[in-house]
Amino acid sequence: AQSVTQLDSHVSVSEGTPVLLRCNYSSSYSPSLFWYVQHPNKGLQLLLKYTSAATLVKGINGFEAEFKKSETSFHLTKPSAHMSDAAEYFCVVSVGVSGGYNKLIFGAGTRLAVHP
Amino acid sequence: NAGVTQTPKFQVLKTGQSMTLQCAQDMNHNSMYWYRQDPGMGLRLIYYSASEGTTDKGEVPNGYNVSRLNKREFSLRLESAAPSQTSVYFCASRRGGSTDTQYFGPGTRLTVL
To answer: Which residues of chain B have pLDDT under 70?
Structure first.
């Protein structure tokens, strides 16, 4: 069965330092993987998506993620955190469902705090 | 182009009351989804509609019903609300076919007393 594990429920960094949010997935075939961000009291915004075209995926706001099949990981990184990055981040795997449509399986989320 | 819209934004119900959450998308997407978000659990799929005229259960369908009114609109109904249904509800849509990116609405925060 497909699943997603976000290894840290909370991450705290100082402004200007690197961000690493870790995600491992389980999938019986080559998956589509996403990172979504949710700012407080807001909806979910797509950060980036992996679809097998390239293992390093660049997203919005300076974020990127690297797909490592051997490690079944899809960690999210940013070289330098900004105060506005404080939010909850969800790693998501897309799974196929009979009939040609799909559904998303969400990790539990990682809350990122950024300190001055 | 508003994307995915949801009404209401906030709602407080008493146990046993009913209500309908509305969702509409203007992107001409084929598939629509309802999720609930609870602390520490990410989002869980309640129901989905692969295309107009079809609906299917997701992970947590008990206590809910849905209607795909037309291609644009997908509503979620709570017939007899329970405190366990206190949650934030998100609607999402997807173009369909091989495209698997879903686009989310702003959410409805529901409290059942």
So the answer is: 1, 98
